[in-house]
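Whether sequence alone determines local backbone shape is best considered at the level of individual chains. We regard such an encoding as a compact summary of how the chain folds. The sequence in question and its structure tokens are set out directly beneath this paragraph.
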Amino acid sequence: MPSLLSSLGLGVGAALLLLTSTSGLAADAAPSSIRHSYLVMGGRTAIIGEEAKVEWEYRGGSRDGFVLPNGNVVVAFSDVVEEVTREKQVVFSYRRSAENREIGTTQRLYNGNTLVTELGPRPRLLEVSPQGAIAHEFPLQPETDNAHMQTRMARQLKNGNFLVPHLLAFAIKEYAPDGTVVSVLKTDLPEVGGRKGENWPFTAIRLDDGNTLTSLTHGNKVAEFNPQGEIIWKVTNEDVGGLFQDPCGCQRLASGNTVVGSHAASKGISMIELDRQKKMVWTSDHPVAAGVHHFQILTTNGKPEPGMPMK
């Protein structure tokens, strides 16, 4: 055990928690431990059950996605967005325009359209109809020509606006449907290390209380900002024994806990769930979830996560 403790930089209590709550291949977890089923996107695209069995798998290299209410999975790759049945039949597809270089994200909207962001010479946010036609679009303002670093997990808000993280702008921008930027939240604050800390916003989640939760990739942090742009909660590598390795995806659960995925974790623990006191209450070291780009927690101890996932 001493070598494990020293390699993780954790105390005995934290190490025991990791060993007993990991959802990968660990057996006979305590009855009170948390169990999740979840969708992972990254080097592999799969649904992992609460008993750590792979229940469904599609091709890898994915960036974003959701399990839809009908059980299908909508998945974004760098060149295409697909809706796929559990039998792996493609029932919806949108291929990136030739003028751009990458697709950043996808989300199925309440009106039935599919949100897509394209990165490249003409960065833009699109709504694509179920028939695959562009129903609405507007240009994004990422403040960089570096296509790969322009944006990631854009999401539609309840008010109809869109929340878009721009990595190299160190900014989370809220866009109205006409493309107007109505607010900007800066992530290069001195209290998180400024720009030298590489606090690039990757996933941005607008919470019901108006706060914004974001993962800060190379900064190896997760932070929650109030509407005034002040940090009211943050988790750094000092809090988790160095287990954040390029945290890209994050999700706020109905319990109030926050799950974070590490894209650079090619083996070992790649997902961590933290409560409000920053205590680790669940981890995953499942090999299929290694290098997770984003994810969706589907169930907790047999109960589905309610409503639109906050991810």
Notes: Confidence is low (pLDDT under 50) at residues 1-32. The longest strand covers residues 292-300. Residues 12-21 form the longest helix (10 residues). Residues 211 and 226 are 4 Å apart (CA to CA).
